[in-house]
Write a structure and sequence with these properties.
By secondary structure, the protein is of the alpha+beta class. Among the domains are: about 60 residues, SH3 type barrels (Roll), CATH 2.30.30; about 80 residues, Alpha-Beta Plaits (2-Layer Sandwich), CATH 3.30.70.100. It is built from 10 helices and 7 strands. The strands form 2 sheets. Strands 1-2-3-4 form a 4-stranded antiparallel β-sheet. Strand 6 and strand 7 form a beta hairpin. Helix 4 runs antiparallel to helix 5.
Length: about 375
């Protein structure tokens, strides 16, 4: 009996010992790999700190200081990647391999997003701000907002595929859900699409003065564009009233832009004189008045034309070019006042409708 127990003890002891002998080398390799990775990371951080101090004298480095953080993060991910691949191959557990590679894909999405934002920021600072248009700034702001969402969505789909999950039903389900949401929020989506088309087509930009068709009755009918959003556009009228117009409505209208080409525009002022007036003299007086406004351009020159013969007046029209489209109403008011004063001095009649009434008395 004692011999049997002794034999059993020796068998168990030898089995446990063989297992520990087999496990110890694996644990030793894991420890060495982790220690080596930690040591490499410490050496890299110290070296990067020294390099960072030495090249701070360069302006590009000072402006784009976040590059160092991006490099450190990339090296850290590389160490994790190398250690992970070694350990996965060491243990050879299939499910562990899949989980590791899926997590690695999602982890790599972070530096990809950061690098994309860095590139977009560089382009915005050095390329877009040099352009005269302000729509480019809006487009880059949209890219900054949605680039991270797109990158992480792609990373999650790839990670699910690595885990062996069929992403085709998920994509199809998302498409069907998107169609359902589209029907439920068709007006909102229509405005979003119209907003994107406004950004691409550029019928106006921030700061342009455009004509309004939905201004409150009795208020100013034009204003300056102050914001172009994905859903609506904000316009501040000359009465300092902000009107928010859905983008879909803007795309269905004729857009009258006074400043898209230049700030110079031609203003037309109707002026009526009586049929007894010397037309040449009236034209000369009107042109002299036009010269008194300092914001009226000399080239192209001002003109006065005869538009038509009205019921009680000869309808003239003064046409002047002004430097700033925003002074259109000022120009009309100024010219009307000054022409009236000049006509009074020169004895030129501004007619008004007259009716001759004849009363006959029958015997």
């Amino acid at each position: 009996m004692l011999d049997y127990l002794k034999h059993l003890y020796e068998g168990i002891s030898s089995g446990i010992l063989s297992k520990w002998v087999a496990v110890y080398p694996v644990l030793g390799k894991v420890g060495l790999v982790l220690l080596g990775a930690l040591l490499g990371w410490v050496i890299f951080k110290r070296s990067m700190k020294r390099v960072r101090k030495r090249i701070q004298k360069y302006e590009f480095v000072r402006i784009n200081d976040q590059i160092f953080d991006l490099i450190q993060r990339a090296v850290g991910y590389a160490l994790v990647f190398l250690c992970g691949i070694y350990l996965v191959n060491l243990f050879r557990i299939p499910i562990l391999e899949k989980v590791f590679y899926a997590a690695l894909i999602i982890l790599l999405a972070v530096p990809v997003k950061d690098f994309t934002l860095l590139v977009l920021g560089y382009l915005k600072e050095n390329v877009i701000k040099k352009s005269k248009t302000k729509i480019d700034d809006i487009a880059f702001d949209l890219l900054n907002k949605f680039s991270g969402v797109i990158i992480f969505a792609v990373a999650i789909l790839l990670a699910l595929d690595v885990l062996g999950i069929n992403v085709v039903p998920l994509v199809a389900g998302a498409g069907i859900a998107g169609i359902a949401v589209g029907f439920a929020a068709k007006d909102t989506l229509s405005n979003l699409i119209a907003g994107i088309l406004l950004i691409i087509d550029r019928p106006f930009e921030i700061g342009d003065r455009i004509e309004l068709w939905s201004a409150p009755q009795g208020s100013a009918t034009w204003g300056d564009v102050i914001d172009i959003g994905l859903r609506a556009t904000k316009i501040r009228t000359t009465d300092n009233i902000v009107i928010i117009i859905p983008n879909n409505e803007i795309m269905m209208r004729d857009i009258v832009n006074y400043t898209t080409i230049s700030s110079d525009i031609r203003v037309r002022i109707p002026i009526g004189v009586s049929y007894d007036t010397d037309i040449k003299k009236a034209k000369s007086v009107i042109l002299e008045v036009a010269k008194t406004a300092e914001w009226v351009l000399k080239d192209p020159p001002s003109r006065v034309v005869v538009r038509q013969f009205g019921e009680s007046s000869v309808d003239l029209q003064l046409r002047v070019w002004i430097k700033d489209a925003r002074r259109r109403m000022d120009t009309i008011s100024y010219m009307t006042d000054k022409v009236k004063e000049a006509f009074d001095r020169e004895g030129i009649e501004i007619p008004y409708p007259k009716r001759d009434i004849t009363i006959t008395q029958k015997a």
